[in-house]
Amino acid sequence: MSRASKKFQKATEALLETLGSRKVKLDEASKYMASFDSSKLSFAYEALVLARSERDVETTLKLANDFGIPVTTRGAGTSLTGSASPIKGGWVLDVSRMNRIKILKGKSMAVVQPGAVVKDIQDAAEAQGLFYPPDPSSQKYCTIGGNVACNAGGMRCAKYGVTRDFILALEGYLPTGEKVSWGGEYKKFATGYNVRDLWIGSEGTLGVVTKAVLRLLPKPEKTWTVLVAFENDLKALEAVQRLLLAGQNPSILEFLDTNSVYCAEEIAGVKLFKGLSLKPLLLVEFDGPASVLREDKKKAIEWAKAYGLAYREAKTAAQTDTLWSVRRKCSGAMFALGDAKINEDIVVPLESQAKFARFLKQLQKKWKLSMPTFGHAADGNFHVNIMYYRDDEDQRRRAKGAVNDLMKKVVALGGTISGEHGIGLAKTPFMKYARNEAEMAAMRAIKKALDPKGILNPAKLFDEYEVWGKRPEKVNLPWDKKPILPKA
After folding, report:
1. How much is the pLDDT for 482?
2. What topology does CATH give the domain 221-419?
3. Helix-strand-coil split of the chain, %, nearest 5
4. How far apart are CA 194 and CA 106, in angstroms?
5. pTM higher than 0.85
6. What number of helices (H) and strands (E) belong to the chain?
């Protein structure tokens, strides 16, 4: 047995002796589902820790630091980039069982553990007349710890912002196992460095969150939804600018390009406008007091008439659900265009969206691949879905070339390579486009200062990894969009 193997064995024996077999799993069957996240890039590792308390987290990190064992922290595993895949082996620290939620109505706050599911937090808040806005598409499954790790967003970012905007405080452990608190149950905090915000979006490389204090808002009184069709993608994105420059503040402003609409209409069978098909759409939602909503509705309809081809408003909950069906079904229907998807979450500034639309058409023509695109138009966060067939070597080559061109162009337009998914493994080859050497050096220095032995989620963010060379696991996860195939 090598020296490294003996070290791992000794460390894992100490972990098992301290926490017990109920919390430490060594068999392959127990470990398998925690060997990958939603990217389905699986890696072997030595032990799975099912943390149920802060002591479990502290013990795991102290032993890992003493022995130099890599630790990858995870919640539900909904990350799309491989950020929760244990590429360096070691131990996986699963905090999903730490899921308590406490609503402090008088303070308009929620105190939650990292394994609390986002939808459960929202439901608990709404039961008290309060509102937690961030709403990633995996909200029924994803945990707040994971949302903190990648600074998750969602559709309501248009009005309310992202996870960072609702984090008042974080508590947890440094990679050394030392406990720290960044803020508390108060709304002002100017005592020393703001390490709290360093943890947010750090993808579990700087510390392990065991408690978060969230800012809550009053629950909106009413909502109103309208779907608008446009002549082409460019006209739709120009209309986004006109709506926002007119001072409108929708809670949701979703863009679906012509290809996405094709997937919804022709493959999934969603029909929303009689006599009008294959036109890009904007799905717009407003919320707030009834008096304000009346004025928002009036202005939005004037805008839709001025710039759109047709519009359809929802007057009942059932009609709202009908309008949302096009957004929900387009993603699964994309698999009729290929059995593999590169789902990017790039960001471009508002003023560059028209240029981006033109570029995307050129990109599809150059690489001869379909790239249905939808996303959060108000903040320029678009999901470009490059569809291809994985077993076709030429299509894999073209998909790789397309995503490389995409990332270069996005940065050239003043944007960035990720708005809410993070870097993980999948986007490490593109960090060189988004960050210069000085910025990368600064981030490495922060990592070294907080994690001197480099044990916490190693090889993420900084080390280039070619995901193309690794075949994803063939497994259906609870949040996977089921493929919708063309009707016979």
Report:
1. 81
2. Vanillyl-alcohol Oxidase; Chain A, domain 3 (3.40.462)
3. 40, 20, 40
4. 26
5. yes
6. 15, 18
